[in-house]
Amino acid sequence: MGKFIVGMGEALWDCLPDGRKIGGAPANFAYHVGQFGFESLAVSAIGDDELGREIVDKFNQRNLNFRLDTVAYPTGTVQVTLDEKGIPCYEIMENVAWDNIPYSSELEAIARDCRAVCFGSLAQRSEVSRNTINRFLDAMPDGEDTYKIFDINLRQHFYCKETIVNSLNKCNVLKINDEELVVVSEMFGMTGLSDEQACMKILTDYNLRMLILTCGTNGSYVFTADDMSFQPTPKVEVADTVGAGDSFTGSFVASILKGKTIQEAHKRAVEVSAFVCTQNGAMPRLPEELIA
Length: 292
Description:
37% helix; globular; UDP-N-acetylmuramoyl-L-alanine:D-glutamate ligase; four-stranded mixed sheet; 13 strands; single chain; alpha/beta; 10 helices
């Protein structure tokens, strides 16, 4: 059984209306998995600049383990604006450090000792990071206790069908939200299907272990070949929703790895993401009762 739980891809600054906060789905995922007591690791790249050094400092302050290669590109930033409901809109800078995550023997050693990895489509917008992610996935062990989670995370125009198909072929768990499901359904010619039918078709076509569908305030689902779990979304006072989906994924995976049933893990993931929505930023400290 592998040692590491890895979030791999973008590490960046979310430039919010009230200031800069550490962001990037993989780092958020790794941070929340780590709160459950696992040896999590954020894998990305930073620039040789002040923003990169600040990321290192912030990760250290949060006790988040990381492998951040320093490359000859600026550290990534995202301009985030919030609508009246606290829903974020992103402007993601291009040609930045996390587009250029290098593959190495050290990273391959981590892959071979990796129990679960979460990756998305965004960090695959560039050839360098896309190749690194694919090589990492290929180097990981296969087995019932190994999880390769594709949190599709469609952003702006930074995705294509080829990348999505390749990622679906390499993962064994897909996480997708209802808006992303519409895009993927159109892309795959499934527009006549209900959400459940589309999810089951993707699950079957790509031989997935699980498919997680989040629908905002309308609840969330976890589909397997022979079962389905539904959880309503709790009503909370929303500060912002930045990182809520990543906390859902991290707490779900951590709960599964702790031996919880899918229904138990799903319930905990919903509780954690609801709490994160009441906080500012993507990496709040979770209360003890949510990580017990």
